[in-house]
Amino acid sequence: MAETEHITVATTSPGVGGAEEPGKSVDLPVVELLTGRGFVTGKSGSGKSNTASVIAEKLLDNGFGMLIVDIDGEYYGLKEEYEILHAGADDECDIQVTAEHAEKIASLALEQNVPIILDISSFLDGDEAEELLKEVARHLFAKAKKQKQPFLMLVEECHEWIPENGSVGEVGKMLIKIGKRGRKHGLGMVGISQRPADVKKDYITQCDWLVWHRLTWNNDTKVVGRIIDSQYADAVEDLDDGEAFLMTDWSESIRRVQFHRKQTFDAGATPGLDDFERPELKSVSDDLVSELSEISEEKQQTEDRVKELREQLDEKNSRIAELETELQDARDMRKMAEQFTDALLQHVDGYNPGRTEKEKQRRRRARWEEDDGEKAAESSPDDATATADAASEPDEPSTDHTSGGGFGDAFGMFADDGAAMAGGDDGGAPGSDDAASAAAASATGDAASASNGEGENGDGATAAVDFDFEPQDFTDDASDGGQSTASANGTESRQSTASNGSASSSQSKESGGALLVERESSEPDYETPAFLHDVESDLRELDEKAQRMLQYYVEQGPDTPLNAHFSAGGSGDRTRAYAYNRQLRLGGFIEHASCGRYESVLRELVTDEAPADLSAPDIADAVADLREIVDASA
Which residue, 43, 67, 83, is CA-closest to 118? Predict the structure, then answer.
C-alpha cells in the first residue's frame, strides 16, 4: 500500500474555522489512520459514532482489516454490507467468546485480515469483559511486532479504560502501551469518547489526528481551548450534527468539516416513534468461526470433565468419611469391651494392679506389633524359648484374646486372667506373684546378661528382673562395684552386670507412688515415670513424620491427617498421610474426633497407664513430661 492512498470522509464547512470554499472534499491518508493515534470526541448525538463508522466503512471498502471494541453494541450494523465477524457473549453475535479465545481472535484479525467487532456490551460480568479485552489487546500487540502489518484498533468510550482521574487498570495500561509503541509495529489506535475532560491528557496530546464534534460542558470546552485555541472553544458549542473541527499533524490548518453519513444500518441511533425495519445482515462463513467454535467446545469439555472429577472426588471423600466412622465405631466397641473387662477384673479376689498394668501394656503393644514380634521370635531362638517357658506358667495366658477385638474375645481374656490370678491350673494360692512376675519378665526379655556369657548361676542363663511391683525406696551403694541393691516388702531385686564388664547403676526416687528413673546424660535433663517407659519407647519407634504429626495434633488440636502431614513437612499425599496417621492410632496416641479429624489423647493414655493411686497433679506432670518427649522427638 502506498502512503499516497487516501479515503474521503467529509467536506469542508463554513463558519468559524471553516474554509473559504465550502463543500470541498476532505481526504485522510490511510497509512496515518491505520498506524497512527487518533481521538474522536463529541457529546451524545453530535455524530462521533457516525464519524467512526464512516472511517471504518471506507477502510473496509479498500480491504483493510480492523478490530472495533464496541461498548454499547452500536457497530453490528456494518454487517449489512460487510462480512465482518461479530464476537461477543449473546446469541446476536456470530460466536460467543471468552478470554480463552483472545489469541485466536488476534490471529484472525492480523494474520488472516478478518475485520472483527469485539462486542463487550453483552457481558454481564464486567471483570470477564475486561479480561477478554486485555488479552485481545496483548495478543494484538505481540503479533503486530512480528507481522508488521498496518492495522487499526478502534476503542469506544476510551475514558473508561484510560481515565484522567483515578487509577489505570490492566486494560488501560495495555491500551496506553499500544498508543505509545504500536505505531512502529504498524498497530494504530483510535479512542472515542463523549467526555474529553475524563480522558487521560497524555493520550490526547500524543494523537496524530483529532476530531472535535459538538461539546457543551464547560470542562470539555476548556480542553478544546487548551489544545486548539480559545476561539474554537466557543465555536465548538454551535457545531451541527456531524460537523466537527478536524486537526491533523499532516495539515497546518484546523478545518471545519461536515462528515458524510454512514451507509450501513445505524444501530446506535436513538429510537424514535417511527417503526424501522432491521436490515438483513451478512453472516460469516462457517470456516471462519470453526476454529473459535473448537476452542469453545474444548473449554466446555474441560469444564465437564472437571465437574465429573469433582463429583467423583466428593463421592470418594464421602465414602472415606463413612469408613472412618465405621472404623472408629469398631475401635470404640473394642475399647468399651476392654474397659468392661478391666472393671470385672477389679472385683476378682487376688486382683493385682501391678499385674493388670503389665498385662494392659502387653495387650496394647501386641495389637500393633504382633507381626514384628513373630519375626523377632523366629530370628531369636533364645527369646522364643523364653517366651515358650513363660507361656507354660499357669499365670501367663497362652492365647492373646485381644487380637480379634470384640466382646467375645474380651470375655475370653477375662476368663484366662481370672484363672491366672486365682493360681492357675497348679492350684497356686492368690497373691503368689513372685514366680509369675519372674516368668513374665523372662518372657518379655527384661533381663541383663553377664559380660562373660555366664549369669548369676554361672550357667550362661539370663537373669530376669521384675519391674512389676509396688513403689519402693532404693539406695545406691557406691562401694559394691557399681551394683545396685533394692529392697521392698522383703523381696530382693536381682543384680545385673553390664556387658562391657563395668557396672551400671540406676538412680530412682518415689513420686506420687510412681517409680521415676533418671534418663541418660545424653537425653534432656527431665525424668520420666517408670510406667511411661513403654509409651516412650513406642513414641521413639515412630517414624519422624509421624512424630511431627503427633506434635501438630498436640499443639493445634483436632484436625485432618492431610493438614497434620503437610505441617510435618510432607507433600500432602493422602496415602502417606493416612499411613503415618495409622501408626499414631495403633500406638494409642490419637483418636478419631469427628468428620475425619483426629486429636491427641496423651492425657487419656497417661491416665490408662498410670497406677491407680497416682494423684491428679502427678498425672498432669506425667502428661507434661510426655509432651516434652513428643517435642524432643519431633
Answer: 67
The whole-angstrom separation of Cα 402 and Cα 177 is 76
- Pair 70, 188 in one domain: yes
Give the global pTM: 0.49
Count of beta carbons in the 10 Å neighbourhood of residue 293: 13
- Note whether residue 493 is domain-resident: no
Residue indicated by cell numbers 506358667: 393
- Mean per-residue pLDDT for 111-139? 92
User: What is the end-to-end Cα distance of the chain in Å, rounded?
Assistant: 76
- In this structure, what is the dihedral angle of CA atoms 179, 25, 257, 243, given to the nearest 10 degrees? -100
Provide the 10 A C-beta neighbour count for residue 468: 21
Report the domain count for the chain: 3
Burial (Cβ within 10 Å: 0-12, 13-18, ≥19) of residue 19: middle
Summarised one tens digit per residue, pLDDT across range 127-149 is: 999 999 999 999 999 999 888 88
The CA-atom distances, in angstroms, between 468 and each of 24, 405, 455, 493 are 119, 26, 21, 11
Amino acid letter for position 301:
Q
Alpha-carbon distance 58 to 43, whole Å?
24
Q: What is the CATH number of the domain that holds 586?
A: 1.10.10.10
pLDDT score at 350: 52
The Cα 97–Cα 93 span in angstroms is 9
User: Cα separation of 392 and 388, whole Å?
Assistant: 6
> Do 562 and 419 reside in the same domain of the chain?
no
- The dihedrals phi and psi of 46, each to the nearest 5 degrees, come to -85, -15
Domain presence at residue 373: yes
Q: What is the pLDDT of residue 403?
A: 38
Give the end of a domain, one of 214, 230, 246: 230
Cβ atoms of 473 and 489 closer than 8 Å = no
Instruction: Examine the pLDDT at 235 and tell me if it is beyond 50.
Output: yes
CB hemisphere CA count around 585 (13 angstroms): 19
Same domain, 163 and 44: yes
Phi, psi of 561, deg, nearest 5: -60, -35
Q: Is the pLDDT of residue 254 over 70?
A: yes
Which helix H or strand E contains 9, and what residues bound it?
strand 6-12
CA 529 to chain centre: 43
What pLDDT is attached to residue 575? Answer: 85
CA atoms within 13 A on the CB side of 297: 6
> Residue 122: which domain range?
30-230
Same domain, 218 and 94: yes
62's CB contacts (< 8 A; 6+ apart) are 5, 7, 30
pLDDT confidence of residue 507: 36
Contact 106, 140 (CB under 8 A): yes
Q: Is residue 500 part of a domain?
A: no
Last residue of a domain, one of 445, 469, 503: 445
At 490 the pLDDT is 35
Report which residue type is found at 320: I
275 occurs within a structural domain: no
- Express each pLDDT in 493-543 by its tens digit: 333 333 333 333 333 333 333 333 333 334 444 566 777 888 888 888 888
| Residue with the larger pLDDT of the pair 110 and 627 | 110
Does residue 93 register a pLDDT over 50?
yes
Same structural domain, 427 and 545 = no
Residues 412 and 540 occupy one common structural domain: no
DSSP-derived secondary structure letter, 430: T
Strands, sheet with 514-517, edge to edge from the N-terminal-most edge strand: 508-511, 514-517, 528-529
Task: Encode pLDDT of 289-320 as tens digits.
Answer: 777 777 777 777 777 788 888 888 988 988 89
Residues 220 and 95 in one domain: yes
